[in-house]
Specification:
Length: about 575
């Protein structure tokens, strides 16, 4: 599999900045299109903080876990539809039109969410935002890939990944900024419309994808754009490769305009590309990343951190590490290749998830006991009904919280690990507890192991971001033949969002039914499976011109003996 790629220059990262300095049009295009990634990241991150305050405003949301999951996952459901439609829109109307449509949908959704008078309207806004995010998620990397010089394609597509993580980091900053402002979550969600509006305006000044134009018969426009993107000594070769690719597909299909789905599935290169591309997108979600991004404040509270603001601040650190990992990806993607980053990423995140599993197991089995005397210090009306009906049995904090969503734990004022009280969970009791210099817990219990959970989360993000965070999108932007690129990219993005929906909709329910530790263990097991999937099914595309990837896939057999070095099936070619 390593042999299927052309060797890239070891200084690819420096070359990226050198070329973009000499030709700023390339970088401007990548950053402008990458705002689609910023929208993706912002929406992923902002809901985690906003949900803490939505629960305070809408009591039904606070009491019903399924409503919390629905608010999060309806954006994902919209993204599934957006990604599926995005493939067709991209092939029919072009990459530029698809991005502008995504911006319009996202802006409308942000406005509706900010003004939502009830959970139903909020969910409607989330669906519209999801439609925009889904369409942008598959269009932005595709557009950047098709308009990038081969030598720096991976690094430029990685800027989209960096903007995704940058959007998540920005969302946590904004969450913190609005914690003391009236209408907290409305500002958090409404501000999301601004980058969508900015990209919509910027796209008026950017060209259509030259490869899409060429395929649609608008050759003169395509050549004009390619001459802006490529150095003079490379542009003619690029045009010739593109022309040959179009002629070959016309010869096979009879038309460069028509897409035959049955032919798509029967084409070896496409089928192998879809196996790798869809597989990576599904793995990206099933190793649990968006549970960390959607629910990171909640996870931190499960680790024993009581304060909403403290949970948000620590989540900001998590988002910052995610953005830092994307920068690492930009540096290494064209230097070490896609597969090595993926494999290192999967090993590291699986070990981090094993650590989280152990930490949460300890945290949930060693929690402060419930003291009848401590509970009696409050009004009898404040006592949790389930604890009273148990005959004041020997409960601990975790037993109290799991007994009912209507119960909370009020820690000892001396030490949060000392015996505490099991009380009714409402704003009056919460304020009474906190006014006595006590900590109030409803999501997780005080633990001496909370700091280890934070280390585990940090390690997970550090290993995930450079590999599984960015590489699946890069591979999917370059692995499909030109004539199927929009459709196949849409299929892969749809698979990503369906997987995202399954994980987002089930995470809180899983933690309640089998526990947080077992949930993380499942994610870790998926990471191990993913390691072998990458070894067998995912080819190396480092340094390959887009038009050459199809030939490599058509000649490449599945690499079941992954311990053997694979010989290059393509004519040798060196990038100077």
């Amino acid at each position: 599999m390593e042999g299927g790629a052309i060797e890239a220059d070891a200084s690819a990262f420096k070359e990226c900045f050198s070329l973009t300095w000499k030709n700023p049009f390339v970088l401007r295009l990548a950053l402008s299109a990458g705002i689609g990634g910023l929208l993706f990241g912002y929406d992923t991150g902002v809901i985690s903080g906003a949900l803490l305050y939505i629960r305070d405003d809408f009591k039904a949301v606070d009491k019903k876990t399924y409503l919390q999951e629905t608010i999060v996952s309806m954006a994902v459901a919209g993204a599934i539809v957006g990604a599926a439609l995005g493939g067709w829109v991209n092939d029919k109307f072009g990459r530029r039109f698809a991005l502008m449509s995504a911006d319009f949908l996202f802006f409308c959704g942000a406005v509706i969410m900010a003004a939502a008078p009830n959970p139903g309207v909020l969910i409607l806004g989330r669906v519209l935002v999801g439609l925009g995010v889904g369409m942008a998620s598959m269009t932005a990397p595709l557009y950047i890939s098709e308009a990038s010089p081969t030598k720096i394609r991976g690094a430029l597509v990685s800027t989209n990944g960096f903007l995704i993580t940058g959007g998540q980091f920005l969302s946590y900053l904004i969450n913190l900024a609005f914690t003391k402002v009236p209408g907290t979550w409305r500002w958090m969600l409404g501000v999301a419309g601004l980058p969508a509006l900015l990209q919509f305006i910027l796209m008026f000044f950017l060209p259509e994808s030259p490869r899409w134009l060429y395929r649609k018969g608008r050759e003169d426009e395509a050549k004009k754009i390619l001459r802006k993107l490529y150095p003079e000594d490379e542009v003619e070769n690029e045009i010739e490769d593109l022309r040959s690719s179009i002629e070959e597909e016309v010869k096979q299909e009879g038309s460069s305009q028509n897409i035959n789905i049955m032919k798509l599935l029967k084409t070896t290169a496409v089928r192998r590309g879809l196996t790798a591309g869809v597989g990576l997108q599904v793995l990206q979600q099933f190793v649990g990343i968006n549970t960390v991004m959607y629910y990171s404040p909640t996870i931190i509270q499960l680790a024993g951190i009581a304060s909403n603001q403290t949970a948000l601040l620590l989540s900001l650190v998590t988002a910052g590490l995610n953005a830092f990992g994307s920068i690492i990806s930009i540096y290494f993607i064209d230097k070490t290749g896609r597969r090595k980053l993926l494999l290192c990423s999967l090993v590291g995140l699986s070990l981090a998830l094993a650590l989280l599993c152990g930490v949460f197991q300890e945290s949930t089995t060693h929690t402060p006991v419930i003291s009848r005397q401590a509970t009696a210090q409050f009004s009898s009306d404040f006592t949790c009904p389930d604890y009273r009906s148990s005959g004041y049995a020997n409960w601990d904090c975790m037993k109290c919280l799991k007994a009912s969503p209507d119960c909370g734990f009020c820690a000892s004022p001396t030490d949060k690990l000392y015996p505490g009280a099991c009380l009714i969970s409402n704003s009056t009791v919460k304020n009474t507890c906190q006014n006595q210099s006590r900590l109030w817990y409803t999501r997780g219990c005080p633990s001496r192991y909370g700091w280890l959970a934070l280390i585990g989360l940090a390690l997970y993000i550090i290993f995930f971001s450079p590999g599984m965070g960015t590489v699946p999108w890069i591979v999917n932007s370059e692995i499909y033949p030109l004539r199927y690129r929009g459709v196949c990219g849409g299929i892969a993005a749809t698979a990503n969002w369906i997987s995202n929906l399954i994980v987002a909709q089930s995470f809180l329910s899983l933690t309640q039914s089998i526990g947080t530790s077992w949930t993380f263990l499942i994610f870790g097991g998926v990471g191990v499976v993913g390691f072998f999937f990458v070894l067998v099914f995912v080819p190396e595309t480092k340094g390959l011109p887009i038009e050459e990837v199809e030939k490599m896939l058509a000649r490449r057999a599945l690499h079941f003996k992954f311990w053997d070095k694979e010989e290059n099936n393509l004519p040798s070619k060196t990038v100077v």
